[in-house]
User: What shape does this take?
Amino acid sequence: MRDRMESDDLKEIRDLFEQAEREEDLDVKLAALRDAISTFASFTADSSSDAGDVAIAKNLHDTYLRRITKQITSAKKMNSSTFYGYLSLLLFKPNFHTKQLLSNDPDMSDAYAKLWERYQGFVRL
Assistant: This one.
């Protein structure tokens, strides 16, 4: 049981990440992930956000980003447009918190390395 009610902002962030995680269509997953990350970034950048809620939001971000990155790296087929969308979001323009996660989590670094290797394969074609 939670000690306190979840704020509407946290609920929205959680819902967006959950939607991205469960989505099977990779294009729709990308759009949902963009929305989740954008909402997360706005919330954590807002100086009026409760510090406890920001900490929870960061945990949500990290947890779901780990799961979704595994899903993306294990996808067998992905069109180049969608793939470049993920690269742009996760590798080329990561938010500050994503950069911190990458530097502190070897599993995430490995997952991102797999994305980069896949990118190198696209570039060689």
User: Anything to note?
Assistant: The mean pLDDT is 84.
